[in-house]
Write a structure and sequence with these properties.
The chain has 180 residues and is α+β, with helices and mostly antiparallel strands. The protein has 7 helices and 5 strands. Strands 2-1-5-4-3 form a 5-stranded antiparallel β-sheet. Strand 3 and strand 4 form a beta hairpin. The radius of gyration is 17 Å and the shape is globular. 22% of the residues are buried.
Length: 180
């Protein structure tokens, strides 16, 4: 086995080669994270690992826009294992075809379950949580999501309650998996 193959297959992070958001190859850690063997994944659309097709579409639009500018994308999101269970995942991607970012890319996936237990959230609560962790104000989140800042404040209040946080800084710490 060549060193490149050895590094790919045994990397301590899940790796996948994607073409047009379809898995062409993945390593052992990717298969372990999502719950099968590497042989089960070639040809599988990445959409299968999102909580909803809306999440797949929305994150795809956002990541494509960023990758058109930088060739890279990174976020933390809720994803779905083969058995249907949801978990927090850190995702990073690098396009190898900059003019058409989704044509081919290398993506890494890290399971954040141990640092960040999953609290059941609606799709909108997840969006507000992610944008809050990125440091956006309620007004900025409202502009991005097409909602009023007061509506965002209501979502943040729900998040504070669900995560048993007293203030926004504590919520962000819990959402990001930082020790309190």
């Amino acid at each position: 086995m060549e060193i490149k193959e050895l590094a790919f297959d045994h990397a301590p992070v899940g790796l996948a080669v994607l073409e047009h958001r379809i898995i062409r190859q993945c390593n052992q850690q990717f298969a372990a994270i999502f719950g099968d063997t590497p042989a089960a994944y070639p040809g599988v659309p990445l959409a299968r690992f999102y909580p909803s097709i809306e999440d797949y579409r929305r994150i795809g639009e956002r990541s494509l826009a960023i990758m058109r500018k930088t060739g890279r994308y990174a976020d933390e999101r809720v994803m779905k294992r083969a058995d249907g269970t949801l978990f927090w995942c850190r995702v990073r991607g690098q396009s190898v075809t900059p003019d058409t970012p989704f044509q081919r890319g290398i993506w890494s996936f890290s399971d954040l379950s141990e640092e960040r237990p999953l609290v059941p959230l609606t799709q909108r609560e997840r969006e507000v949580a992610i944008l809050t962790c990125r440091g956006l104000t309620s007004k900025e989140i409202g502009l991005e999501l097409g909602l009023s800042y007061r509506t965002i404040e209501i979502y943040r209040a729900r998040l504070l309650e669900k995560f048993q946080a007293r203030k926004l800084a504590e919520l962000v710490a819990k959402l990001s998996g930082m020790p309190l």
